[in-house]
Amino acid sequence: MRIFVIVFLCWAGLASAQGFPPPYSSTVNDFADLLPDPVESRISSRLARLKNESGVEMTVATLRSRSGTAREVTLEQFATALFDSWGIGDRSRNDGVLLLILVAEREVRIELGAAYGQDWNSFAEQVVEETLVPWLREDDFTTGIDLGTSDIITRIVQPYLEGASPPENDSMSFSDKVFLALAVLAGAVGLFAGKIRQWLIARRACPQCGKRTLNVSSRVLRPASLGQSGEGIDLITCTSCDHRAETKYVIPAQRPTKAQGGGRFGGGRSGGGGASGRF
């Protein structure tokens, strides 16, 4: 059950990957221009060496803002969609890593490839809380990103490659488990929302004649887009009388397709694991 919850939630509700800037490097993509050239070169060399020695693709991405996405898209959803859009990591191994910095929102995210599962999240949280956030909070992006990339390698990537057991994480409370189960149920219902909605409406008695002879036809008013729900309308008529009514309904936001090897990366994908922080 736990595995199903994790797999489902990492995909449910994610925004379409369209609109992300294409990566210009497989190591450092400093779109926000936070790093001096010597530091960017040092980090890039470190990540290139990691790739050459272990095959792990790790990249740093800095953006001024994610304001172009809908408000419903969370940092975690944004990072997962960006990861999958770029295709970070080897397609067959899925052990890539993304360090994402959003300046305007003052948010930071370590996004892990699908191979890490959720078991390495606590180590990612340690790096975020102990290394990244303290430096970024002081607007020392240079030190924070430099030390953060080193810590991710030494505390997550290297132990993972060496076969170290991930930390035990049985801290999920009963209420958290209930919430996850309800989220899965709600998502599953959402997949069939249109058919279920029409079936339920058709089962009702006509408010005018009382007979159960309602017909429903649907029309899209506004298609769903990047993290933004759409809107449709149901036209309800009765075959036994002249009853006619219209009701609006919500179309769930789009999900991304799996990455097809974007940019200079190997076509890897995320499993939604990692850790986030605000500075």
From TrEMBL:
The keyword Signal applies. Keywords: Signal. Residues 28-154 form the TPM domain. Gene3D superfamilies: 3.10.310.50. Residues 256-279 are annotated as: Disordered. Pfam families: TPM_phosphatase. Residues 260-279 have a biased composition (Gly residues). InterPro entries: TPM_dom (IPR007621). Residues 1-17 form the signal peptide. It comes from the Bacteria. This is TPM domain-containing protein.
